[in-house]
């Protein structure tokens, strides 16, 4: 600073101020981007809905165990003991918790961003329609309910904008 004029000092301070402002805006953009990514991650199914299970009937075309006809299976079956806790795989809202003839007792979650998950053949439902849940919250217990089941298991579906997705891609 010694030997600098007031005008050149002011000019350097202005340049430093603009540089600091630019850095601040960059950090704010990064922070906002990370917040958006975190929000998206919270609503993306990314954990197994049960523990200790074994994958059985896979996603995709398969010979149906009851009808013996080839048909598209929209989910992944996970063989577990009846009464095994079933967990939400992402934050969301319960949009269905009821009986269906084929699925038996089931829970369907809306996670936002077009994501939905479905948990079928339950023995017991532990949530209510309209309830908000977080990843890892219990939804009910696995079972053998409904007409399209041969043994206790969880039928688990992931959909994006109502298009069935292979659940294994989210574990």
From TrEMBL:
Pfam families: Peptidase_M23. Residues 72-167 form the M23ase beta-sheet core domain. Keywords: Signal. Gene3D superfamilies: Glucose Permease (Domain IIA) (2.70.70.10). InterPro entries: Cell_wall_metabolism_enzyme, Dup_hybrid_motif, M23ase_b-sheet_dom. One of its GO terms (molecular function) is metalloendopeptidase activity. This is M23ase beta-sheet core domain-containing protein. It comes from marine sediment metagenome.
